[in-house]
Amino acid sequence: MSLSRAAVAPRRLRWGGAGKLLWRRMALGVPVTFGITAVVFWLASIAPFNPLAAYAGSRYQQMSLAERAQLAAQLGLDQGWFTTWWQWFTSLVQGEAGTSILYARPVAQVLAERLPYTLLLAGCGLLLAILLSAGLAVASGTRPGGLADRATTVLAQLAQSLPPFVLALIAVAVFALRLGMPTSGIAAPGQSPTAGSIAWHLVLPAGVLALTLLPWLVLNLRASIFQALDSDSVLAARGRGAGEWQIMVHEVLPLALLPFTTVVGSRLGELVTGALLIETVFSWPGIASATVDAAKAGDFPLLAAVTVASCLAVFLGNALADACYLLIDPRVSDV
Asked: Within 10 Å of residue 74's Cβ, how many Cβ atoms?
């Protein structure tokens, strides 16, 4: 990241630089993503699961060797992992993501049903984490070393030391067992999901996901606020007699939020993995359960599609964060 204080890039040039940055990142991200899918196919091929037995279920023990071989050929499980990957890759280039062995439906249809729930959980968790981080960091910045500052540091360190599944189990013990909040699915048993039931069942998983993201976000924003408090613009504002809250809103936060955008983008990988873990604990109908079941069943097309979606989300998120930094701060000429 090159920073020039002497020359401020015009807005038109900054937009052009942001566009070039996005093209460069995606030009790197797309081939890397497909390379990762090849690794996924290889790992799935050496996994200690028998995909044929997982697909056939209880019928597997009664099947003859000839029947097993015929079924394996029908499912494409009798080929090497590279041949299977290459067939999937060429089909994807032609616009066909393949058919899920586990669900016996097109992969695109499986993702269309489950991906919106994962995006809803991840989006709400990230938004809640950003809002909590901003509130706690501002509370710390108004009185450094005070009670709010010390409490924020302790909370961030505690959340950082606990794995996501432990936080989820604590939330279940406190809010579900004691307060009766729902802990699984998107609706009560035997009822169809509604917008209200989805929102109510989303509270715990989104809250836990936000806590898993909170430590890095709040500690980074807190450090940026403390650094901004020592800047020349803040000293000048105090010399003009501006109030502390006015200084925080108009001087400190604009400076502190610049690096914060990059930090948010860099945590997208953690957001994806955290969402998958939390979906499993709370039985959220996203792509987590489908991913685990697909890994056990050797469902290569579905595994690869989930990998592509996850990798591209991380690459694109980081690229958008850096592009936003380039657009917001006129001193930055390249990222």
From this structure: 11
Q: Alpha carbon of 309 to those of 113, 115, 239, 241, 326: distances in Å?
A: 14, 9, 51, 52, 25
Q: How far apart are CA 275 and CA 284, in angstroms?
A: 10
Which amino acid makes up residue 219?
L
d(CA 75, CA 254): 56
Report CA torsion sign: 31, 35, 38, 44: negative
Q: 225-259: b or e for each residue (b if 16 or more CB lie within 10 Å)?
A: bbebbeeeebeebeeeeeeeeebbeebbbebbbbb
What pLDDT, on a 0 to 100 scale, did the predictor assign at position 128? 92
Residue type, 217: L
Average pLDDT estimate for 18-29: 79
Q: What does pLDDT average to over the chain?
A: 79
Domains in the chain, start-ordered, CATH in brackets? 2-334 (1.10.3720.10)
Of 90, 110, 92, 88, residue with least CA distance to 100? 110
Task: Give the three-state DSSP class for 100.
Answer: strand
Give the whole-angstrom CA distance, residue 90 versus residue 81: 14
Digit-coded pLDDT (tens) for 295-323: 777 777 888 888 888 888 778 777 777 77
**232-263 pLDDT per residue, tens:** 777 887 778 777 777 787 778 877 877 787 77
**Residue (of 158, 161, 133) closest to 225 by Cα position:** 133
